[in-house]
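Notebook p. 47: complex prediction with zinc ion.
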Amino acid sequence: MKYYLLVFSLLFLVGCQTTDNSAVEDQVENESVAVVEESHSVQDATAQQDEQYEKEVRADGVPVAWTDYSTYAEPNEEGYAYEIHPDSDISSEILPITGSSSDVLLFSFDDAPQTPGSHALEMAELMKSKDVNAIFFVNGMYLNSEENIDIIKQVHDMGFEIGNHTETHENMRELTYEEQYYQLKTTNDKIEEITGEPVRWFRPPFGLYNSETVSICNDLGLQLMTWSFGYDWMDEYLEADPLAEVSLDNEYLRGGANILMHDRSWTYGALERMIDGYREMGYHIVDPYLIQHQRNVEY
Ligand SMILES: [Zn+2]
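Predicted complex, structure tokens below:
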């Protein structure tokens, strides 16, 4: 097992060096681009509330997985089957704890709910209809209107996990300890007020953080995760067809990959093909509620 982890970590480090730098630069450039989409209709989603399920919550306050994981996961007594390395510098990929399959992919969506023009609800509805669960990482600054709060509430009520992506999408490395604490704590409080559940995951904007971020995450009970690959913010992939193609055929796609997407129209357009394509390749899209949260390694 140790040997396996080492090989896995080395593989990731190699991938990390080539992806992260360019990914960060591209994201810095593109995340400020204003996206004007057709206005979102809340009515579309209210019909979905009929399908709201009775949430089963375990002793630690985390809901149990609701997708059909019987073909790939063997959860332990607490209902967990996977973990993410507690040092996100090493890996944010999804590793089996028990005898579960390693051919899993995690779907995660940042910058939700995009304002204006969120597609978070439609994406959640599509995934729900295809038995897929995912994490939506929200920015606290978007949770300041009734409409947006309602979007995240509905996404959560459908069974999706909500993670923390800071209050105002700052580069954590440029902030003081107090400023970072404010960014994480304020958004955590807003999410918990909506979901009534502990927030387990933090994704730093641009994938950038420092030792203070890690320490604050531990104070707030958050595990920090970056990602393995993502393309939907790069100029050449701002349309559904090329985005679906590159997402299904790139050098970083392998079991355990943590896939970064955003709340964008072209991502919504590519999503069904991605789900079907990954499944045809033999991958399972892991239910995040199967992933056991851990304390981060501090440095
Ligand atoms: Zn972001």
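Notes: The domain at 2-30+51-292 is CATH 3.20.20.370 (TIM Barrel). The chain has eight helices and ten strands.
Next step: compare against the earlier run before touching the bench.
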